[in-house]
Design goal:
The complex is a heterodimer of chains A (206) and B (195). With 206 residues, chain A is mostly helical. Chain A is built from eleven helices and no strands. The chains are: A mainly alpha (206), B mainly alpha (195). The interface between A and B is large, with 34 and 46 residues.
């Protein structure tokens, strides 16, 4: 009987229809991979014991436990282990533990909630700054690409040509760069303003 | 006075300035937190120090507890990160069973406990001994599930994993625990079964 198990691994899928099939075929033992079947059986039984099975699974397992000796034995074995684990004891710290903690926390105060001192606008500002920076570089780089040569198979050499064609001097002296830098400066000033306002408020509250 | 109050009610009192109310939180969770620490840190003294530190950290960041999860889940998350930080500082290995070094550590633990088998006085102590032989990860999952009253989703929050991964981990941990019990305490297990 031990090695004549049911083809549960084929049947016990998440499709609940398979469960009724399994219950109908309960008296048709077939040979299968013993380890797989055992593992699947255990997994299903643990779910049943933990109360994680669906209603259909639960009733199917109850039928299996009632009708199949192997399932019944395994169920009792796992239930025993479950009860042992439930009964395991918590470990206790020394008698002075709570007193030590209370003495220690007397030196401290509850810190203000993180959300009160992390200003979302500052985070959005920093995020915006980097996004503009990336978009700016991307737009400039794309505007410099020679699309006419893009279809040639020598991608690497074309890439080198494109990079060589870039006028780096113009990049750092153009109107575009000036505008870009102006936006960054404005953003930087806005962030500084937010930071200083917050400092001022904190100073007033203190 | 505080025994009938929920964690959230006690916390709101603490946040209003009643520092002594926190003693009830400590009383309520000291064994859970200490057990969790003991599952990761072998030395009792170190575990107690870390457990103390966990309660202090929790107190200081109490305003950050938004009540979106159970207080115990939040506290266990602090407990786990504190234990990991402590072990990192001590340069000890805390990784899972797949890690070769942990295997050696576990084997060392096993050999140490073999001598203590005769000292096992009750079935509960036997389970505790067997849990100690597991890797810290396995021991934590079992402790959180069986003693910490945490669901798979809550354990997932503590360990930073998906509930399905926790389920698989729990299944494997139980499997390994049963193997340990069968290997080291087979006589006691059979005695219990025949009771």
């Amino acid at each position: 009987m031990k090695y004549m198990t049911y083809r549960v691994s084929d049947y016990l899928t998440n499709d609940e229809n398979n469960w009724s099939d399994l219950c109908n075929n309960i008296n048709k033992p077939e040979k299968n991979s013993f380890m797989d079947t055992q593992l699947d059986m255990e997994e299903r039984l643990w779910d049943y014991i933990d109360g994680l099975s669906s209603i259909n699974e639960k009733s199917a397992i109850e039928k299996l436990i009632g009708a199949n000796l192997e399932w019944k034995n395994k169920y009792h074995e796992l239930l025993e282990a479950h009860q042992l684990m439930m009964g395991s004891e918590l470990q206790e710290p020394s008698m002075r533990f709570a007193k030590n903690v209370m003495e220690e926390i007397a030196k401290y105060h509850v810190a203000p909630a993180t959300r009160t001192y992390i200003n979302k606008r500052v985070i959005w500002g920093i995020g915006g700054f980097f996004i503009i920076l990336i978009i700016g570089f991307l737009v400039y780089a794309l505007s410099q690409v020679n699309y006419a040569g893009a279809s040639t198979p020598k991608i690497l050499s074309e890439y080198n040509n494109t990079v060589n064609k870039l006028d780096w001097g113009r990049f750092f002296n153009s109107t575009y760069t000036t505008v870009f830098m102006m936006i960054n400066v404005v953003l930087g000033l806005m962030m500084l303003d937010i930071y200083l306002t917050r400092k001022k408020q904190q100073h007033k509250e203190a | 006075m505080f025994t009938g109050l929920t964690d959230t009610e006690i916390i709101s009192r603490v946040l209003k300035g009643d520092q002594q109310a926190y003693a009830h939180i400590v009383e309520r969770y000291k064994n859970y937190v200490f057990t969790l620490a003991m599952r990761m840190i072998e030395s009792r003294e170190d575990a107690e120090e870390v457990a103390q530190d966990i309660f202090i950290k929790a107190y200081r960041s109490l305003a950050d507890f938004r009540g979106e999860s159970k207080f115990s889940t939040w506290l266990y998350t602090i407990a786990r990160t504190s234990c990991i930080t402590f072990l990192r500082k001590k340069k000890l290995e805390t990784v899972s069973i797949e890690n070769e070094k942990t295997l050696i550590q576990v084997e060392n633990r096993e050999s140490g406990f073999k001598a203590n088998v005769v000292e096992v006085k009750s079935k509960h102590a036997m389970v505790n001994q067997a849990i100690k032989m597991l890797s810290p990860d396995d021991a934590q999952v079992i402790t959180l599930f069986y003693k910490g009253e945490q669901t798979l989703e809550e354990i997932g929050l503590v360990l930073g994993m998906e509930p399905n991964t926790v389920k698989v981990k729990l299944h494997r941990a139980r499997q390994r625990l049963r193997e340990k019990m069968e290997k080291h305490f087979s006589h006691e297990v059979h005695d219990i079964q025949s009771e």
